Amino acid sequence: MGLATRTIGTTTVEVTELGFGGAPIGAVGERLSDDQVDEIVQSAWDKGIRYFDTAPLYGHGLSEKRLGRNLIRFPRDQFAMSTKVGRLLVPRERGERFAGMRDNEPVAIQYDYSADAVRKSIESSLERLGLDRVDILLCHDIDKWTHGEEQPGIYKAAAEGALPALHRLREEGTVRAIGLGVNESAVCTRVMREFDPDCFLLAGRFTLLEQEPLDEMLPLCLNKNVSVIIGGPYNSGLLANADRRRATYDYKPAPDDLWEKAQRIREVCMSHEIDMRVAALQYPLRHRAVASVIPGMWSLNEVEMNLKFIQSDIPDSLWSDLAQAGLSRSW
Fold it and tell me: What is the pLDDT of residues 265-288, one digit of tens each?
């Protein structure tokens, strides 16, 4: 059974409901060899995945290099590709290394949300990817989750520079869809009111564990025909691990209340003989605004499991039981 596709907003970009999150193949660095990455990407392609996401941040460019080296073998009109702007890769002495990455690339990160930086960033990304274009270009991390008290200044810089630049690239036909890649919904709602995005890549905020975007962001997405791509559908591990020691939330040890909520969700899923990971992967796709879920994949086993999970049958009674127990919201 092939993977279904959905269209991004009012564009012609089509993505498979299950996409390939490219962060891990850069972030883990030498823990994965190039040959292993080649096998993982080939497996994803063979199993029907036709949407791939990456960013300069992931492995300080390593993810883009590794994905591009593989995707260049496939017909370009048969897959959709997204990457991001907002962080330039510069010599190590001119920037900061992102602590979460284990790569050995000889570069560092420099935040820059200016219009000039957008063009520099996409040109550099295309060089690393070895591709002639990307389909979706996202302004990366202009949220409070990333920048804290500095976020108002970051947003102002993006609103005056990066976001108008993305619109111009779309008008020129350089990219077919634009939006944000962020970790909170509030900034998405603001951008919809002030600009004309096609989509958002929202990580970790619309999941089986938490559904705050149902209050404002997702209804507005439906009203404006803006699509949502869901990153981090397992909340960085909390919805995928039964072992408390491995169950992280937002890449940190899971708080007690969220761990306990996840276990209650697990119990309801088990009562229906459904693996909680299956429910976690499929839950966001039930919303009409959601076009794709893109879990990070850094092993052949994860590719195979995610394909199995996305194609598993779930009875409607599971969703209603979760809602009645106050563990997830319906709409």
Answer: 999 999 999 999 999 999 999 999
Helix, strand or coil for residue 83? strand
Say what the alpha-carbon torsion angle 32, 102, 22, 253 is, to the nearest 10 degrees.
110
- Closest Cα to residue 207, out of 246, 234, 237? 234
Beta-carbon contacts of residue 28 (< 8 Å; ≥ 6 apart): 59, 102, 298
Tell me which long-range contacts 312-317 makes (C-beta under 8 A, separation of at least 24): 312/274, 312/275, 312/278, 312/282, 314/272, 314/274, 314/278, 314/279, 314/282, 315/272, 315/274, 317/272
**Chain-centre distance for alpha carbon 35:** 24
The answer to whether residues 218 and 296 touch, using CB atoms and an 8 Å cutoff, is no
What pLDDT, in 10s, does the model give residues 243-261? 888 889 988 999 999 999 9
Judged against a pLDDT cut of 80, whether residue 7 lies above it is answered with yes
Provide the annotated active-site residues: 58
Q: Which helix (H) or strand (E) holds 140?
A: strand 136-140
The residue among 15, 26, 16, 35 whose CA lies nearest residue 55 is 26
**How many separate helices (H) and strands (E) can be counted in the chain?**
13, 14
CB 169: neighbour CB atoms within 10 A?
19
State the pTM of this model: 0.97
Contact criterion met (CB below 8 Å) for 113 and 142: yes
Separation CA 37–CA 42 (nearest Å): 8
Give the Cα separation of 161 and 115 in Å (integer): 4
Handedness of CA 269, 272, 275, 277 (dihedral sign): negative
**Two tokens, residue 213:** 């975007």
**Residue 178, H or E segment:** strand 177-182
User: At how many degrees (to 10) do helices 163-172 and 115-129 cross?
Assistant: 60
